[in-house]
Structures are given as structure tokens and as C-alpha cells.
Design a protein that fits this description.
This protein is an alpha+beta fold. It has three helices and four strands. It starts with a helix and ends in a 25-residue tail after the last helix. This is Methyl-coenzyme M reductase operon protein D.
């Protein structure tokens, strides 16, 4: 799991690489309040829940960054991303996997959330339980 500072450095470096179509960050949730148990509803202090700046946009970390999934337009972009990761991850290892990890066609959840004319960049990024929209950073 990455701390907020390392996640910010990584995301800013990766966002600057040309050829990235979409990027998704996954990890365990960082809720503002305790969701269950005896402390349910009480504030959940966590030092990893911060606002970071990525590509000039402020992003509230809702998850502790554990996996970054990137959709690229061509193979050359993968090597540029590997170079960026080699520069950032000097103290600990990382794993870069190549394959198709994002949906390319709208699912029933996408249709229910965004309708028949959903933005292609949003397909597969829908969490049906979330009321707020994903952060979109345009470069």
C-alpha cells in the first residue's frame, strides 16, 4: 500500500505520460466514519485520508492506493510507464502486468447509473453504491 505522498508522486508522474486513456486507483477504503461495529458512526481518524494534487486537480483519497490500473493507447506507453515506476519505486519492488483489466463495453450497472449514452471513458469505473462521481483529470 502506498502512502499519500508516494501515491501523489506516482500519479503525477504517470499522468504526464502521453498515451494514457484511463487510470483507475484501487485499494482498501478509507471511510470518514466507522462503518460497522461498536464504534459505528464515530469519526475514523486515518492519516492516509488526505487531499492530494494530481495533474493540477485536487483529489480526495477515498482509498489507500494499492493498485493502479492504466488503459493505454499503444505498446510504447507501457515502456514509458515502466521507466516512471523504476524512478519512483527504488526502495521497494512493484509489479507491472500487461493485459486487459478494464471493461470495454457498458455493463448493466453502467447503463443503470449513466444511461444508454454513457461516456466511454466511464465504462467499467462505476461503483453502484457511490453517490459522488469519479475524479476526471484531463490532459
Amino acid at each position: 500500500m502506498l502512502g499519500p505522498e508516494t501515491a501523489e508522486r506516482l500519479l503525477n508522474a504517470v499522468v504526464g505520460v502521453p498515451g494514457i486513456r484511463r487510470l483507475m486507483v484501487n485499494g482498501p477504503g478509507l471511510p470518514k466514519t466507522v462503518p460497522y461495529g461498536p464504534a459505528r458512526g464515530k469519526p475514523n481518524p486515518n492519516t492516509n485520508r488526505k487531499t492530494i494534487t494530481v495533474g493540477g486537480s485536487d483529489v480526495d483519497l477515498r482509498v489507500q492506493v494499492g493498485m493502479v490500473t492504466i488503459e493505454v493507447t499503444d505498446e510504447a506507453t507501457i515502456e514509458e510507464i515502466r521507466t516512471v515506476c523504476d524512478r519512483i519505486f527504488t526502495q521497494f519492488p512493484y509489479q507491472l502486468q500487461v493485459g486487459q483489466f478494464m471493461k470495454t463495453q457498458a455493463t448493466l450497472v453502467d447503463y443503470a447509473k449513466y444511461g444508454p449514452d454513457a461516456d466511454e471513458t466511464m465504462i467499467g469505473l462505476v461503483d453502484p453504491k457511490r453517490t459522488d462521481v469519479p475524479v476526471m483529470i484531463q490532459h
